[in-house]
Specification:
The complex is a heterodimer of chains A (133) and B (687). Chain A contains five helices and five strands, in the order βαβαβαβαβα. Chain A has 133 residues and is an alpha/beta fold. The radius of gyration of chain A is 14 Å and the shape is globular. Helices cover 41% and strands 25% of the residues of chain B. Chain B has a five-stranded antiparallel sheet with strand order 2-1-5-4-3. The longest helix of chain B is centred in the last third of the chain and has 56 residues. With 687 residues, chain B is α+β, with helices and mostly antiparallel strands. Chain B has 18 helices and 22 strands. Chain B is rod-shaped and about 220 Å long. Classes of the chains: A alpha/beta (133), B alpha+beta (687).
């Protein structure tokens, strides 16, 4: 059996964290979640996910700090996707410069969009299992 | 054996040498002669008359004939024999004095008589005393007696003094009279000197001229100073000593001195230049010329001159000061008034009178109240009453009526007037026309109030924006969560859905989309409003950007069967734009064009260069915009009413963004519209 592809979600809003975890789980991904950048760093090291979804505005350590603290070279196979509420070109550029792969708007993201995005990121490695018919 | 008195007849001649003389030398010698005759001379050292030596008898005889008071002191004892005249001198001592020794007879002057006897009897000298003063007790009391005394020796045949003959003439009366006279004279002199000193030291200039020539008999120092210290006055006639009196003053003087008419002149200015500095100076004098009467007739004059320069000068200073005050007051660029201690106005300066157009008589007393604004009268009354009671300064504002009947605001500053001794005598008031200032003050106050209101409004506005931003932030997460869970359900993650379930979920989904849309709009507005929002402008092909927008929009336009046309005359135009933002701008404009048009219809987009601007316009065939709304549509949260408003969603923020973004690009947006026909939005951007 192939191991589930691991995704790390770093998001401070509990309700959203639960929702995204639920969506990805139903789509066959192994999901870990962290409430802030600090926790995120710990889980990143521990689980070595393939995709990291990281929010920007978080307490304790925000997304930007998280990206700064990640040694990108240690995670060559990991894709970092930054998602935020605001489309701020400046922040977008900064995050991309720090090693983010993509930058998306949270509020425009439906479950379908999310799944599609993760699948696209994994490319051919994306799992097939879908909960519905 | 004694001899009988009055016995006449020839004397007996005897054989012995002692000759018995008869008493005939005593006859016809008055009372004293008789007394001598009958005196018992045997008891004395002289012996009986019959044995008196001839010298004695002769001397006695002569003495008795003389009217002068004489006394003969015979022998070393100085036995006294004297005549009638002397008996008067002797007073109560006569007749006991007769035949007594001189030292016994006059014990109170014994020393004197001793000296006399010593000089005259023993040494044979003559003595003469004039007005000799001796204290005698001839009448029992001490008496100061003056007398002329002449003592001469009476010689015997050998030339030795046998006796002393004294002529005693009492001069008491004369001496006393003389003394009295002297006293009187001295008294007179003292009086005169006192008077003289008085005159000389009087604080007035005094001179006295007497006689037909009006000779100066008195001139004190002040007078000398008045006429010139170097002048010789005393003893000289007036016209000679002071030639300048002619002719006018002399006439006056003659009137006083010879007609007895008193002359008075007040505050005559007299120019003197008698101080050594040679600078003339003026003194003011009150003159009084008093006639002097000699035996009832005017015979001269006393001149008095009182220096009243100080009073005159003081009065002149006050007058000068008053005059200067009035001159100053009349030329001062302010209105000056004075009130007395009862509150009555007593003075208004010229400017005040000109301002009110009234005469002084109309203004003084209480007349000026007619120019005080009736609304200000109660306050004025209260203010001044209070000030007068406490005698404190006033600083208030009142309205006064100008000559042209207009009221002007005046700043009134009043100060209490006090005399040099601190007595309250009223008020000085200065009034300054500060009408313009007052009006400006009011305007300023009004503006301040307006500014405060505006600031408050701005504050509220900002608070509103902040609230919206905050609320939006808070709403976003739950709205996003709803999107996820509704999505989960709709995508079948919780199991298959019935048609009804799907339908309801679709509604929920649509509403939620709208929620998110609104929230995003609000947050984007807040972002735009934040002062640090910056564009990322780059030189871009603007035509390409517009084409992209149109392409993106085509699909939603087709939903309403709307066609889009793009007309561009200048390809490849470049402009400094933030492509993301500009895209949003035109996206918004196209959305509006579509939203506010009915199904079908055409939307035209044109792009052209005009001078240094690029003009991009979007034209629709929609409901149009009324003239009154053309400005309002660009306001925040404003959606104008038209037939489609209620059926078309909108936050009222779209055009607000458009305007902000265009303005940030240093461009401009305008709208042209006809209700019912359509609208054209024209955006101009600098090249």
């Amino acid at each position: 059996m192939s191991t589930k592809l691991s995704v790390l979600i770093i998001e401070d809003e509990a309700v959203l964290r639960t929702a995204y975890t639920l969506i990805l789980d139903k789509n066959g991904y192994a999901v870990e979640s962290a409430a802030n950048g600090m926790e995120g760093l710990i889980l990143l090291k521990k689980t070595k996910p393939k995709v990291v979804l990281v929010d920007i505005f978080m307490p304790v350590m925000d997304g930007k700090e998280f990206m700064k603290n990640v040694d990108i070279e240690l995670y060559p196979n990991t894709k970092f996707i930054v998602y935020s509420n605001l489309s701020d070109p400046k922040t977008e550029a900064e995050m991309l410069a720090l090693g983010a792969h993509d930058f998306i708007l949270k509020s425009s993201m439906s479950p379908q969009n999310l799944v599609q995005l993760i699948a696209d990121t994994f490319g051919s490695d994306a799992p097939d299992s879908r909960a519905h018919d | 054996m004694g001899t009988t008195p009055n016995r006449r007849g020839p004397a007996k001649k005897s054989a012995d040498s002692s000759v018995l003389f008869n008493h005939t030398f005593l006859s016809k010698c008055g009372k004293i002669g008789a007394l001598i005759d009958t005196h018992d001379w045997a008891k004395t050292s002289i012996g009986i008359i019959e044995q008196w030596p001839p010298a004695l008898r002769v001397t006695v005889n002569i003495m008795l004939q003389s009217p002068l008071p004489m006394v003969l002191l015979w022998g070393s004892d100085g036995v006294m024999i004297y005549n009638d005249a002397y008996s008067v001198f002797a007073g109560a001592r006569h007749p006991s004095l007769l035949g007594s020794k001189v030292l016994d007879g006059w014990p109170e002057v014994a020393d004197f008589n001793k000296h006399v006897m010593e000089m005259v009897f023993h040494k044979g000298k003559t003595l003469s005393y004039h007005d000799q003063e001796l204290t005698l007790y001839r009448d029992g009391q001490a008496e100061q007696v003056w007398m002329d005394l002449n003592y001469s020796p009476v010689m015997d045949k050998n030339g030795k003094p046998d006796g002393v003959l004294a002529i005693v003439t009492e001069t008491t009366k004369r001496v006393q009279a003389e003394q009295k006279q002297l006293e009187a004279e001295q008294k007179l002199q003292t009086e005169q000197k006192r008077l003289y000193d008085l005159f000389m030291n009087a604080p007035a200039a005094i001179s006295m001229t007497t006689g037909p020539d009006l000779v100066f008999t008195l001139a004190n120092d002040p007078y000398m100073q008045l006429v010139g210290k170097d002048r010789q006055l005393l003893g000289r006639p007036l016209v000679e000593a002071l030639p300048e009196v002619e002719p006018d003053l002399l006439a006056i003087v003659k009137n006083v001195a010879f007609k007895g008419e008193r002359f008075v002149a007040d505050e005559l200015p007299v120019t003197l230049d008698w101080d050594n500095k040679g600078m003339p100076y003026t003194k003011y004098l009150n003159f009084v010329y008093e006639p002097i009467f000699e035996a009832g007739k005017p015979d001269g004059m006393m001149a008095f001159a009182f220096d009243v320069t100080e009073q005159v000068k003081a009065r002149q200073r006050i007058e000068e000061s008053e005059k200067r005050f009035r001159e100053l007051a009349d030329t001062a660029p302010m209105y000056i008034a004075m009130a007395d201690e009862t509150g009555n106005a007593v003075y208004f300066n010229k400017p005040w009178l000109e301002f009110t157009g009234k005469k002084l008589e109309e203004m003084v007393g209480m007349g000026w109240l007619s120019v005080l604004h009736p609304a200000d009268a109660p306050k004025f009354e209260a203010d001044f009453k209070n000030a007068f009671e406490k005698q404190v300064p006033i600083n208030e504002q009142y309205r006064f009526k100008r000559a042209d009947k207009k009221y002007r605001w005046m700043l009134a500053v009043g100060a209490p007037r006090l005399t040099a001794k601190g007595k309250f005598v009223g008020y000085y008031g200065t009034y300054t026309d500060f009408h313009e200032v007052k009006m400006a003050e009011r305007e300023h106050e009004r503006l301040r109030s307006v500014t405060l209101q505006r600031n408050e409004l701005q504050r509220l506005n900002r608070a509103k924006d902040e609230f919206i931003s905050l609320a939006s932030h808070q709403l976003r997460t739950p709205a996003t969560a709803v999107k996820q869970y509704v999505g989960l359900l709709m995508d079948g993650y919780a199991g298959p859905l019935t048609d009804e379930q799907r339908e309801y979920l679709k509604t929920a989904h649509d509403s939620n989309e709208r929620q998110l849309h609104i929230i995003n709009d609000l947050l984007r507005t807040a972002q735009l409003d934040a002062t640090d929002y910056k564009l990322r402008q780059e030189k871009q092909d603007i035509v390409e950007i517009i084409r992209e927008v149109i392409t993106d929009f085509k699909s939603s336009a087709e939903l309403k069967a709307q066609k889009i046309e793009f007309h561009c005359s200048d390809d490849g135009l470049q402009a400094m734009v933030d492509s993301t933002e500009i895209k949003l701008v035109f996206m918004n404009l196209l959305e509006n064009a579509s939203k506010y048009s009915h199904e079908g219809g055409k939307i035209t987009v044109t792009l052209e260069q005009k001078d240094d601007q690029i003009l991009i316009s979007t034209t629709d065939q929609g409901v149009g915009i009324k003239d009154v709304d053309k400005e309002r549509i660009f306001d925040k949260f404003t959606r104008v009413q038209n037939e489609l408003t209620d059926s078309v969603p909108g936050t009222g923020l779209g055009l607000y963004w458009v305007k902000q973004i265009v303005a940030m690009h240093k461009g401009n947006i305008s709208v042209d519209s006809q209700p019912g026909k359509g609208s054209t939005f024209i955006v101009s951007l600098p090249l």
